[in-house]
């Protein structure tokens, strides 16, 4: 086969080119706007945009599971014990911290808020963990805590978009999309990027958090649903047999292939792949979701119940997905927004409830991956879109205890391939307000995760609207303190 057939512009002869320009002046304008990378399939000759592709260098990891605690957990009630907060509880915080500061909701004089929870050191590493996370406390020697995470946004939707796409506005590809664009997928019967939701719906940033942006839509995250069809439009309509469906898809594939060879639009290849993937998922997804076949002790470790959607079930599904070669799995669990405006969102009621819903399953996931040998090739990430303030929000005089949004310092933890374990990195000041050592900015996080997957973040680019874009834009440095 002539390899030039994979690039439609190369196929066109000089005579054909001038013939089309003579008939269609618009074609010249189009040719000047469309970059070669828009037509090039990074998979080489394959029409499948999710075909596996070689990384830039030998990777430490093959897949990522991102446990996104949507709403932003309070690091000061979970991982950061600050005696100074207790000493100055309910007193005005020194102005040096808040002068010129913009808060989402705090008004007037901010007052210090001590944590009502007890902290203790755990494991050989001596990591500090709150009493709210007893299961996480048991696995601290497998984890790398980073207390000095930083972001540029302090409202939920922009911060969620920033942490997922590298930009606080809609329109950029998500990290999972970049990874599947760069590396493809090792399982051709499932999407390369899967999203699982729990806790009450989508994040504030909506499906833009797992959008493919300007990348071909083949790389968009696919949301698995807990009710009805796990993936929409994969079931055959009433009266349509499997044979009829297969014959219809064959005809559509042939027509789309003719169009692809004529036009060269990569979205046509995406369409072909989407139809085929939907057909394959009719058998692969039901088998994946059937967690009743797991050992009883495994289900008990996660706290998962067959037929009952939950964060625990999603954690178990995440393990099953990476076990099958899925590249990027992202779990969103809503409800961590603890402002203190009511019992439903304070740190005395809602925060313990969120911890109860997630703590056991997070710890079980890490240990299950380790026992199966999958932690050597998988990265697990835990964290929210930003942190919480060391001051009480007290919005409109509320007496419930809560904390406002805080972008300057928050805690995330990491485990798995290429990541140091049993360490706590980064420090904050005595009030837990600012990072004071080894800050981990969102762009640096993205650069580091791509590096662990065998990708140079400066080389993974896509040309759009006249310039090359990348996940880290013009930023990003490797966060070497975290790397083995």
Tell me what the structure shows.
This protein is α/β, with parallel strands linked by helices. It has two domains: 1-33, no CATH class; 43-482, Alkaline Phosphatase, subunit A (3-Layer(aba) Sandwich), CATH 3.40.720. Helix content is 34%, strand content 16%. It has 16 helices and 18 strands. It has helices at residues 8-11, 14-23, 25-33, 36-39, 75-78, 83-87, 95-98, 134-138, 156-165, 175-183, 242-263, 266-289, 296-302, 311-323, 350-371, 442-452, and strands spanning 63-69, 111-112, 119-122, 127-130, 144-150, 193-198, 222-224, 328-333, 378-383, 387-392, 403-406, 410-416, 423-425, 427-428, 435-437, 440-441, 462-464, 467-469. β17 and β18 form a beta hairpin. The model is unreliable at 1-13 and 22-45 (pLDDT under 50).
Summarize the structure.
The protein is α/β, with parallel strands linked by helices and 484 residues long.
Shape: globular
Radius of gyration: 24 Å
What's the total helix number?
16
Major beta-sheet overview: 9 strands, mixed
Quickly name the level 1 CATH class of the largest domain. Alpha Beta
Assigned CATH architecture of the largest domain: 3-Layer(aba) Sandwich
Secondary structure: elements and pairs:
Elements lengths: L7 H4 L2 H10 L1 H9 L2 H4 L23 E7 L5 H4 L4 H5 L7 H4 L12 E2 L6 E4 L4 E4 L3 H5 L5 E7 L5 H10 L9 H9 L9 E6 L23 E3 L17 H22 L2 H24 L6 H7 L8 H13 L4 E6 L16 H22 L6 E6 L3 E6 L10 E4 L3 E7 L6 E3 L1 E2 L6 E3 L2 E2 H11 L9 E3 L2 E3 L15
Parallel strand pairs: 1-8, 1-9, 5-13, 5-16, 6-7, 6-8
Antiparallel strand pairs: 2-10, 3-4, 5-12, 9-12, 10-11, 14-15, 17-18
Helix pairs in contact: 2-3, 11-12, 14-15
